[in-house]
Design goal:
Shape: globular
CATH topology of the largest domain: TIM Barrel
Strand order of the largest sheet: 1-2-3-4-5-6-8-9
Oligomer: single chain
Radius of gyration: 20 Å
CATH class of the largest domain: Alpha Beta
Number of strands: 11
């Protein structure tokens, strides 16, 4: 394709694939899409190795990164792991221990808090940015608020386009005024952090809102797992799509087989928007994890990024128990997933998914031309 977005990023087919797995990122880009590595899973000491691997396996095709610089969080510059641990109430630790125990998963209180400074903490996020800009990335994206001037200025100086995820037209206006190059309009159907405006409404609303602000290209996101949906989004004016959930079910992904099984079995109503994973509204597979945290006598979810510090170890331990055949753990297991999960019916390779998108996109386009009599 040849539109402003493709020219800006070098994408052949504007199917942007967000994944925390380097194998998915490289496979999608090699197949003609555009892989984007989510960096919030990595410490600064790990990201260099991940990006070096992608450089060596992407065959010179373009790829990007997503680094979180949250506009609001309970992390301040200079905070240490001791500072983060001290901010977590003992009652929350006890609640996690009891919740897992109810589902036949054992975790000690000293295992509950993840002993790693969150990658979204200001100092760590800047280190991730330093590392990313040393690699031949063709895009850098930010979510959870307006991209900070530091990120925008340094990316532009390096010739790297900046993308920002938004959930409302008001957010899109702020991002455009801040100088970002690409807007990702992410509807409430999306997995992970999302707002509550539907993609079908949000995309044209955002396109209208930024038309007089330089008209940055808009990517549609939220519940998109097929090429026909991509064609529909582009018919509304989007110049491509940003996808995530569909790649979790691919054979390339590091996703637990337990989560793959639950995703294949899930319907579009099998997800829930909850604060019980990160402290911010986040869509995941529904499970007793969310029911427990929503109970009247449960402690309130901690603010971001404290909540992930007590959720990651617990949910990882739950997955390992589920993989070992513990029934209670299987029920409790959850993971970020959008409502498009209801359209995922089998496990395929990331390359095959890209090819399916291309074929379905072409078929939908031809069908549209037939319907309008062209």
């Amino acid at each position: 394709m040849d539109n402003a977005l493709c020219r800006l990023t070098g994408a052949e087919f504007p199917l942007f694939a967000f994944s925390h797995c380097r194998d998915v990122v490289a496979a999608v880009s090699r197949a003609g899409g555009f892989g984007v590595l989510g960096c919030s899973s990595y410490g600064s000491h790990e990201l260099e190795a991940e990006l070096a691997w992608i450089d060596a396996h992407v065959d010179g095709k373009p790829y990007g990164v997503d680094i979180l610089f949250p506009a609001t969080q309970s992390a301040a510059p200079g905070m240490t792991m001791d500072d983060f641990s001290a901010a977590i109430p003992a009652g929350h630790v006890d609640f996690v221990v009891d919740l897992l125990d109810w589902h036949d998963v054992k975790i000690r209180p000293d295992e509950v808090i993840r002993q790693r400074v969150p990658p979204t903490a200001p100092d760590e996020a800047e280190r991730l940015l330093d590392i990313a800009l040393r690699h031949p990335i063709r895009l850098i994206a930010n979510a959870l608020g307006v991209a900070p001037p530091l990120m925008i200025e340094r990316a532009k100086a390096a010739g790297v386009p900046v993308a920002a995820l938004v959930g409302t037209k008001e957010h899109a206006i702020k991002q455009a005024k801040a100088g970002v190059d690409i807007i990702v309009a992410q509807g409430g159907e999306a997995g992970g952090h999302c707002g509550d405006v539907a993609t079908m409404v949000l995309v044209p609303e955002v396109i209208r809102a930024v038309a007089g602000l330089g008209a940055p290209p808009v990517l549609a996101a939220g519940g998109i797992v097929t090429g026909s949906q991509m064609a529909g989004a582009m018919a509304m004016g989007a110049q491509g799509v940003w996808t995530g959930t569909v790649w979790l079910a691919t054979s390339d992904a590091e996703t637990s087989p337990v989560i793959r099984e639950k995703m294949i079995a899930a319907t579009s109503s099998g997800t829930i928007r909850s604060r019980a994973r990160t402290g911010k509204p986040c869509r995941l597979l529904d499970s007793p994890w969310h029911t427990a945290w929503n109970a009247p006598d449960a402690p309130k979810p901690l603010p971001f990024p404290l909540m992930p510090l007590i959720c990651v170890p617990a949910l990882n331990k739950t997955l390992r128990a589920a993989e070992a055949g513990v029934e209670g753990a299987f029920k409790l297991a959850t993971y970020e997933s959008g409502q498009g999960v209801g359209l995922i019916e089998s496990v395929k390779s990331a390359t095959a998914v890209v090819q399916d998108f291309k074929q379905e996109f072409a078929e939908a386009f031809e069908q549209f031309l037939t319907q309008v009599g062209v």
